Write a sequence for this structure.
């Protein structure tokens, strides 16, 4: 039986370093411009990090600035648990919607997120500035109304 624990954390640097090998990119400019609000980590004892999610604000909107689960722990429900934790927190904070940039939009669609035309989205993504954008990387802006 897998045992893991979800804890709120302020270890943003550790979480960002955990997410980078999964293909999530964080520029120094983005890190400085984001208003980190809360983050949760999933650990196996003693402190083996297996997943995390970071809630931020950017352009005045609630934004998932990172979510990831370690490869061997994927498909165990950890990603959904983390996202539901984040969604419930945004509701408590009075948020009306949540945005994210997805490389795997199908996962987020199962949670009620819908694709948004980049023209209709707030300035939450620096993806179009990247040389890999629509060459090797095809991110999608998504939104969930609460």
């Amino acid at each position: 039986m897998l045992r893991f624990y979800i804890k709120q954390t302020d270890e943003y640097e550790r979480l960002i370093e955990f997410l980078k090998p999964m293909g999530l990119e964080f520029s120094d400019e983005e890190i400085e411009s984001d208003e980190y609000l809360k983050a949760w980590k999933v650990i196996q004892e003693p402190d083996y990090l297996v997943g995390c999610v970071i809630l931020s604000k950017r352009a005045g909107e609630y934004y998932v600035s990172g979510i990831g689960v370690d490869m061997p722990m994927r498909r165990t429900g950890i990603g959904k648990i983390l996202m539901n934790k984040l969604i419930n927190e945004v509701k408590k904070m009075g948020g009306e919607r949540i945005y994210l940039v997805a490389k795997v939009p199908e996962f987020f669609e199962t949670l009620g997120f819908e694709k948004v035309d980049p023209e209709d989205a707030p300035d939450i993504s620096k993806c179009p500035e990247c040389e890999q954008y629509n060459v090797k990387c095809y991110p999608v802006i998504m939104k969930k109304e609460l």
